[in-house]
Each structure stands twice: as C-alpha cells, then as structure tokens.
C-alpha cells in the first residue's frame, strides 16, 4: 500500500516538525513554502514579505532554549539560553539537516486553494492548487497540515485614532520597524505594550530624544533572568510548581505571581498596572523596561485620544509633540486558500483543541501552532503533529462532533472569563 501523501503548508518552526513527524510515521510529506527559505517568523529580512511577520534586527526569543527545543534534537550547549533570531535560525537549519527535511520542501511555491475532492466523504482527500513562477499546478493529498502561523497580516486599526490623517509626522506598524537609527533625536510614541511594543520602546530610548509608551490596559512585565541568574521559565515551569498550581485556586496563583512581579518593580507606580490578572493573558517579557522608565527615557502614557498635525493628545488630557508613531498592535490571521472549511471570526477559529475542524466527514485537515501558550510553541507544535499524524493513519480517533463542539464552547467560555 502506498504511503499517505500529506501537504504541509509553511516551512516555519511548526512546518519543519510537521515534516519530521510525518516521516516518523511513514507518511509522504510535501511542504509548500511561499518564500525562498525556512524559518517563518524567525527569519530576518530587511524588507517585510507578504503574508509573513517581519521581525526587527535585535529580536531575542522570550523562552529559554531548554524550554523551546524539539524533544529529539537538543539545542547545543554553547548556544545562549535566550537566543538571538540568528541563533534560532541556525538551530532550525541544523534540525532540517539532521533529519533531511529540505528535500521535502518546495520553495517559492504559494498555496492558492485547498479544496475537498468529490469523493472526500469516502476518502478524505484534498486537491491542493499551488503556484510557482507564475505557473499553477494541482495535486491530490490524503491529508493537509496548515502551519502558516498566527502572525500573517499586520493589524493596524487606524480608524481608532482620530486625526491621524492630518498628522504631519510618519507612522508604521511594528512589522516595518527594523532598527532605531531612523528615529535618532525624534519624539516617538509606541502604541501597545505587548512584547514587540516594549522591546521597540526600550531600543528606541537609546537613540530617540524621548519615547512615550501608550498603553490601553497596562501589562504584567516578567523578566528573563530569575533568582540565581537562571532563566525565568526554566525555574518557574517545573513539575512541582505546576502541581502546586493545579491544587491551588487560580486566584491564589495569580496573587503569588503578581506579588513576585511587583517586588521587582511596582506596576502601579510605573503606570503599568493592568486590570486583568497575570495568568489571564500573555505576560510581556522584558528585563530593561523598569530602568528605562525610572530614568525617564520611556514615559508611560494612557491611550491616544486623538492626533493633531504635530502632536498626540492622550486620554488623561496631556499633549506631547510627536515626530513618529510605531503601532505595535499585533497581527491577525486568515486562511484564504481554504474554501469555507474554516472561518476566522475576530481572530479566532472554531477548532477542536485549536487543531481540528468539527464539521469534516473525515479528519484529514489539521492546524499546527495556533495555540497561544504562555511558553514556547515549538514543543506544543511537535506534540500536535504527532497527534495529527496518528489521526491521519487511523491509529487514534477524534471524539464525536457533539463532544468536540462542547469542548470548543467550554474553551471559549474560559477565555472570555479571563
């Protein structure tokens, strides 16, 4: 019997381990990557590429190497605990060479359409139409793994900022930010206190005349370096701590961690106190922000009420002269190549365990890496790929549709409460 053919869409972190897991299970994968190289989010380019997040030159990962590596390929001992994007790419290339993955990747190939075959109800097969060098071709696959990631389309809500059309300075999304030199001597406002926003604000503070950090609801700021100099996630995400968390009410866990974070610097005193609890949303990770705030290089501001030609007026009524704005307002994702199989509404897709559509006659379509964990995505993507390949081979089965729908509803309810 011929091996099942699996289409893998995207050759980033999730796509690479999808290839590896398919090969481990005796499947025949073909990966379609629209760009000319692997790495996805982590590959730095001077010019942003369509459909892919674009990182800045100084990016360092927020999870330690011990917590982000694939299970069967440890990161070398001489690599730093928190790696620069160039080191992450080096690791991915080593991984791809070790398991001979690149021969299964078709670079410079965009996926135009993924649609059910006429006999899908019986076979679960898909027709995948791709385009390369202006030519389209079609192929049939037994299963599809979507590994295109969360960070595809820049979210830039310009309508939420009255007066921006008359602003005489310049503005950009964080995906277009590469280095601080163009902002030398300028007054800059950074909108957003996620990881990108705070990283950029801190970096700009070394060259800009003044940086203002505008936040809508504050942020809990964690740090990479924990007690004794060990990585924070390596110290905190232990089996003992996780057992303790499972036994304690969530409110107690929140209280303990918030007290720990406020012992480092008082978030209310620094203008960053959020209304949400620390374990309710993604924390922001940065070691340098408190020093930038206490030295005045970064000034925390509330949300921007409106722009004038030369300034920003904030919700508290203060006005600051501004030369440039960096919108670190995140990303949205979509699946334009899928024909009505999965709909994305308000940046969410109804997927069982964030992986499987419920309404398919055959479970031969899975999404990898669309969980938003508190830690690294790589180990989770690996486990997702193992599960998906087992489902494709019939070694495991999904529960009934009613059970999956109930699980999706329960997950959404939990997320809404947080």
TrEMBL record:
One of its GO terms (cellular component) is endoplasmic reticulum membrane. It is found in: Endoplasmic reticulum membrane; Microsome membrane. Belongs to the FMO family. Its EC number is 1.-.-.-. It catalyses: hexan-3-one + NADPH + O2 + H(+) = ethyl butanoate + NADP(+) + H2O; heptan-2-one + NADPH + O2 + H(+) = pentyl acetate + NADP(+) + H2O; N,N-dimethylaniline + NADPH + O2 + H(+) = N,N-dimethylaniline N-oxide + NADP(+) + H2O; hypotaurine + NADPH + O2 + H(+) = taurine + NADP(+) + H2O. One of its GO terms (biological process) is lipid metabolic process. Keywords: Endoplasmic reticulum, FAD, Flavoprotein, Lipid metabolism, Membrane, Methylation, Microsome, Monooxygenase, NADP, Oxidoreductase, Phosphoprotein, Transmembrane, Transmembrane helix. Its cofactor is FAD. Acts as a Baeyer-Villiger monooxygenase on a broad range of substrates. Catalyzes the insertion of an oxygen atom into a carbon-carbon bond adjacent to a carbonyl, which converts ketones to esters. Active on diverse carbonyl compounds, whereas soft nucleophiles are mostly non- or poorly reactive. In contrast with other forms of FMO it is non- or poorly active on 'classical' substrates such as drugs, pesticides, and dietary components containing soft nucleophilic heteroatoms. Able to oxidize drug molecules bearing a carbonyl group on an aliphatic chain, such as nabumetone and pentoxifylline. Broad spectrum monooxygenase that catalyzes the oxygenation of a wide variety of nitrogen- and sulfur-containing compounds including xenobiotics. Catalyzes the S-oxygenation of hypotaurine to produce taurine, an organic osmolyte involved in cell volume regulation as well as a variety of cytoprotective and developmental processes. One of its GO terms (molecular function) is NAD(P)H oxidase H2O2-forming activity. It holds the Pfam family FMO-like. SUPFAM superfamilies: FAD/NAD(P)-binding domain. InterPro entries: FAD/NAD-bd_sf (IPR036188), Flavin_mOase (IPR000960), Flavin_mOase-like (IPR020946), Flavin_mOase_5 (IPR002257), FMO-like (IPR050346). It is a single-pass membrane protein. It comes from Anser brachyrhynchus. This is Flavin-containing monooxygenase.
């Amino acid at each position: 019997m011929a091996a099942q053919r699996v289409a893998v869409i995207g050759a980033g972190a999730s796509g690479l381990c999808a290839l590896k897991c398919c090969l481990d299970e005796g499947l025949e994968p073909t990966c379609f990557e629209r760009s000319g190289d692997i790495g996805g989010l982590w590959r730095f380019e001077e010019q942003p590429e369509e459909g892919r997040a674009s990182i800045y030159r100084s990016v360092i990962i927020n999870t330690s190497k011990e917590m982000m590596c694939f299970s069967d390929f440890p990161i070398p001992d001489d690599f730093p605990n928190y790696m620069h994007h160039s080191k992450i790419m080096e690791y991915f290339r080593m991984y791809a060479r070790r398991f001979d993955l690149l021969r299964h990747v078709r670079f410079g190939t965009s996926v135009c359409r993924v649609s059910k075959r006429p006999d899908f109800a019986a076979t679960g097969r898909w027709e995948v139409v791709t385009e390369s060098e202006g030519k389209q071709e079609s192929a049939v696959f037994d299963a599809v793994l979507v590994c295109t990631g969360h960070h595809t389309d820049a979210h830039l809500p310009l309508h939420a900022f009255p007066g921006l059309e008359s602003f005489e300075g310049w503005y950009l999304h964080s995906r277009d930010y590469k280095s601080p030199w163009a902002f030398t001597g300028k007054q800059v406002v950074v909108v957003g206190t996620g990881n990108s926003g705070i990283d950029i604000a801190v970096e700009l503070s070394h060259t800009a005349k003044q940086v203002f950090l505008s936040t809508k609801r504050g942020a809990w700021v964690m740090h990479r370096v924990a007690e004794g100099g060990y990585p924070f996630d390596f110290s905190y995400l232990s089996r003992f701590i996780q057992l303790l968390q499972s036994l304690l009410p969530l409110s107690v866990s929140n209280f303990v961690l918030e007290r720990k974070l406020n012992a480092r610097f008082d978030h209310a005193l620094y203008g960053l106190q959020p209304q949400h609890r620390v374990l309710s949303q993604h924390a922001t990770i940065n070691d340098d922000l408190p020093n930038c705030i206490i030295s005045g290089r970064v000034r925390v501001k509330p949300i921007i009420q409106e722009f004038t030609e030369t300034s920003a007026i904030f919700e508290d009524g203060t006005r600051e002269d501004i030369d440039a704005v960096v919108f670190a307002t995140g990303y949205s994702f979509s699946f334009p190549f899928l024909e009505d199989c999965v709909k994305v509404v308000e940046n969410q897709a109804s997927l069982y365990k964030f992986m499987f559509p419920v309404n398919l006659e055959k479970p031969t379509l899975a999404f990898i890496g669309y969980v938003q964990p508190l830690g690294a995505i790589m180990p989770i993507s690996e486990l997702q790929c193992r599960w998906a390949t087992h489902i494709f081979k019939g070694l495991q089965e999904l529960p009934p549709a009613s059970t999956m729908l109930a699980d999706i509803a329960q997950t959404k309810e939990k997320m809404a409460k947080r």
